[in-house]
Amino acid sequence: MIKLYGNKHWPGCKPVREFLLENDIHFDYVDISESIKNLKEFLKIRDFREEYNEIKEANYVGIPMLLFNNNIYFENDIDIELVKEIKCIQD
Question: Which residues are CB-contacts of 64 (< 8 A; sequence separation ≥ 6)?
Fold first, then answer.
């Protein structure tokens, strides 16, 4: 399963979401501002994953974030190479 964590009010989330949709990547979108449940789901990942250490130290939230095969990808990591990798597994 692929999940994209974001927030409809954060400007960086919309382009990432659109990029994935334009490239036919199937994912669940979790808007962390939509409910406490969604926020807790995201914080459970953010608070305990090593990949978030620098982000937390800089006082950033760390969205958009794609969770794929238990790996975390941040905005700058979500590119055409990742799309190719995902498509190989989704097909």
Answer: 4, 5, 6, 10, 12, 13, 16, 17, 74, 75, 78
Phi, psi angles (nearest 5°) of residue 31: -85, 110
pLDDT tens, 30-67? 999 999 999 999 999 999 999 999 999 999 999 999 99
Candidates 88, 85, 38; CA nearest to 63 is 38
Instruction: Tell me how many domains the chain contains.
Output: 1
The predicted model scores a pTM of 0.93
- Give residue 58's domain range: 30-79
Four-residue CA torsion sign, 12, 18, 19, 24: positive
Q: Residue 89 — pLDDT band, cuts 50, 70, 90?
A: confident
Give yes or no for a contact between 5 and 30, defined as CB atoms under 8 angstroms apart. yes
